[in-house]
Design goal:
Layout: E1 9-11, H1 16-25, E2 31-33, H2 37-44, E3 52-55, E4 65-67, E5 71-75, H3 80-85, H4 87-92, H5 94-102, H6 106-111, H7 114-119, H8 128-133, E6 137-142, E7 145-150, E8 155-157, E9 160-161, E10 168-175, E11 182-189, E12 197-208, E13 211-220, E14 227-228, H9 230-236, H10 243-256, H11 267-283
Parallel strand pairs: 1-3, 2-3
Antiparallel strand pairs: 4-5, 5-10, 6-7, 6-10, 8-9, 11-12, 12-13, 13-14
Helix pairs in contact: 9-10, 10-11
């Protein structure tokens, strides 16, 4: 009788030190995962090529939401459901709550994690545009030490990021803003729910009467990574809202981004939808 040889090796460390020891002892050999929602899709499709995995599910150091006077710090294992239910996030970070509601089914929201959404590094992920708007920072840990990185520096190209083979994402820090911002989030997909986005748009603006004192615009599913529309922001910052400035912003956006063609949509469609969402966002600022 042939001996059974398991196709995969799974470890479930009970402490962060144990997990980091595995990663540091054999860099690149062990693949950590959290909720496993994307991993199961790859397994079902026969595309799960990695063979040795570390489940992070038992690591208390990666859980919890801490609120301080200056920031909200979310453990990497914070689920989408936990994001939606947290009162401070509901009040001060509604874009992140909106993104959590748009992510998959209720089952996925109960199991999928914010850290997993970041490290999966998909440009179509729902939460990254909100994290860009909120100037998020991320904490990366290894046996070598701890470092904080501005989230906008983390993704470098499609599925590439500033994460060493022996590092884990431990937490996400969101600075709290004392002044009120008007905020907007839209995800456009094939269906109303449980669909990967064709365009994801997040925006926030601080207004003084009809003048835009500050503005942030972030886009997903447009490029190999999520991005800020900084040139479009420059056109709008300090401007008084009027049809002419909205038209100028749409023209700038068209020059600033180079939408991708892929199986879900065309570059032409993505550009038109993104411009329309920008106009919708700006128009609702004066209501």
């Amino acid at each position: 009788m042939r001996a059974y040889i398991p196709g995969y090796d799974l470890r479930v460390p009970r402490s962060l030190t144990e997990a980091l020891g595995l990663l540091g002892g054999e860099p690149g050999i062990w693949q950590p995962f959290a909720g496993g929602t994307d991993l199961m899709v790859l397994l079902e499709a026969g595309k799960l090529y990695h063979k040795r995995f570390i489940s992070l599910s038992k690591l208390a150091d990666l859980r919890g939401i801490e609120v301080t006077p200056d920031a909200v710090i979310l453990g990497a294992l914070t689920t989408y459901t936990e994001v939606q239910r947290h009162p401070v996030l509901q009040t001060e970070f509604p874009l992140l709550c909106a993104a959590a509601r748009e992510t998959g089914s209720i089952a996925t929201q109960n199991r999928g994690t914010l850290g997993g959404n970041i490290v999966n590094a998909s440009p179509a992920a729902d939460s990254p545009p909100a994290l860009l708007i909120y100037d998020a920072e991320i904490e990366l840990v290894s046996a070598r030490g701890v470092r904080w990185l501005p989230y906008h520096e983390f993704h470098t190209d499609y599925k590439k990021m500033q994460l060493a083979p022996d590092e884990l994402l431990r937490a996400i820090r969101l600075p709290r803003r004392p002044k009120p911002w008007r905020q907007y989030y839209r995800k456009v997909g094939t269906r109303k729910a449980q669909a990967i986005s064709k365009v994801c748009f997040a925006g926030a603006a601080r207004m003084e009467a009809s003048t835009i004192r500050d503005i942030r615009i972030a886009l997903g599913s447009i490029a190999p990574i999520v991005l800020r529309a900084v040139k479009t922001e420059e056109v709008l910052r300090g401007a008084m809202l009027a049809p002419a400035i909205i038209a100028a912003a749409k023209e700038t956006l068209a020059r600033e981004i180079s939408p991708i063609d892929d199986i879900r949509s065309t570059a032409r469609y993505r550009l038109r939808v993104t411009q329309n969402l920008l106009e919708e966002f700006l128009s609702q600022l004066v209501r």
